[in-house]
Every structure is written in structure tokens, then in C-alpha cells.
Amino acid sequence: MVGVGDLPNEILEIIINFLPTYRDGTNFSMVCQRWENLVKSVRLKRMAAFKKALGEGNLCWNKWNSGHAVAAPSKKKRPLSGLLNVDSVNDLQFSTTICGDKMFVLKEHPNLRNLNLWSFDLSQRTWEKIDLSITAQSVPGFKGDFTMVSFQDKLILFGGVRIAKGQWLNQLHVYNIREKQCTSPAISSPWPPVMTQHTATVHGKQMVVFGGHHKTTHTQKNSNDVWTLNLDNFTWKFQKTSEMKPIPRYDHITKSISTRTIC
User: Fold this and answer.
1) Residue 133 backbone class (left: φ over 0; alpha: ψ -120 to 50; beta: rest)
2) pLDDT profile of the chain (263 residues), mean per 10
């Protein structure tokens, strides 16, 4: 009997290319070595096509309407005063990261004094709201200009500012996706200063925090300092760097490429 395995690689790649590369692609790659190689080939070709389109400015954006019962995060505007000195925002204070086949969005709630955590299934294209007030042991308070990164099955949230109070933070919260528990690890000194509008990237088992607004007892400044957090034992380290480095900055973007951080 002829089966799908008898099809040539060229035909199987066309079939795989119609599937989402996240959960379905991963399941396909677990069938056998041949299918794993086919999935890798499809992913490499997709990435090459994306980079080519990006370089040519030839990207096509589509708005996704899932029609699912759970609505996407709202776009309500709210007054914003104090530190940033602007009149209103449209979902300004939020952070996103991808973990496995889901994208997580952590954002301020416009009325409540806490944060909303949403997950977006990249395969099924559906939203799910995660209620931190029920599942968490240590819930992050209402704040903005924080960073969130993913490591293994965890979300790492650091820093930020409580805008209404003008209170800058250096709190660290860890949300375990599988266990649905949020904790604040006990960490001995040294500890980074309170900061906002910084960036964070993950390299192996290290979270690298760069720049932002820093505030100590006596000073307030833009920074180009680098701090690293060991994500195994949650220990901070002030990272010494070369004399030549970027100028102090905030509200910037960093990207991890291989073993480097591009700012």
C-alpha cells in the first residue's frame, strides 16, 4: 500500500509548508529523521524568504481575526501623568516574548492596580487571558517600562516604574508557565539599581540587562551599564566591559544574535 512516506521530498516539503511551523512543525519533525530534515529545510527556506523580503521592503501585513470566544487585549486609552509627561497612551506599557509555540503579552490594566498577562497560541491563533491574581503567590504590581524575557518554561519580569507614584523599581518576578505560579526569588547582593526603559536579552543561562534610566539615593541618570542575571541560581553580577561602548541611552532596542547583543 502506498502511504504519505512514499511521496518524494519535494512534495512533502510543499505539504509541510502549508502547516504552522510551531506546534505542527515540531510534531512533524518527531516522526523520523527524514521528516525532521524536511521540517528543517522548510524552516530555513521560510527564513531565507523572510530576510529577502525584509531587505527589499516587500512584506505583506495581514490583520488576524480569530473569531475566538476570548477577546484580544483591549486598546483602551488612559491618562498618563508624571514621569513621561504625555497626555495619553494606546497600550504603551507592555512587553512581549515568545516561549515555545506561544507569544506572551504582559501589559498594564487601565483601571486595576495590577498587570494583565495574555498568551497567544501561534499555531491555533487564539488568545487566552491568564489570571495572575488567582494563580500567583507573588503578583507584580501595576507598573510600566519593564522588561520580560523567556527562559525554558519561565517568564522573567524585571524593573519598571509605577507611573502614578513616580516610583522606580528593581523587582524581579518569575512566572512558571507550566505550574502557573509567580514568585519573587530571594537574591543576595549585589543588586542592580532601580531602573526603567532598559532592555533585557537572554544568552544561554544569562539574562543581560543594558542601559535605561537608573536611579540611586543621590543620582538619576541615563546609563550604559551592563548587568547579568544567572537564571539557574538567580545571582546578579555587574558586568565589566571595554572602555569603548555605546553612549548612555534609554527606550532603545537590543537583539541577541548568537553570543552577542546588538543595540
Assistant:
1) alpha
2) 83 86 81 90 90 85 62 47 33 77 79 72 85 59 81 91 76 88 82 91 93 86 92 91 89 79 67
What is the maximal distance between C-alpha atoms in the chain? 79
Q: What is the dihedral of CA 244, 250, 253, 259, to 10 degrees?
A: 40
Ramachandran assignment for 252, one of left (phi > 0), alpha (psi -120 to 50 degrees), beta (any other): beta
Closest CA relative to residue 103, chosen from 23, 200, 203, 199: 23
- Cα distances (angstroms) measured from residue 147 to each of 56, 64, 158, 242, 247: 31, 26, 5, 25, 20
Helical (H) or strand (E) element with 209: strand 206-215
pLDDT at residue number 83: 32
Own/partner pairs, 55-60, CB within 8 angstroms, 24+ separation:
none
The reported pLDDT for the residue numbered 81 is 33
What pLDDT sits at residue 71?
55
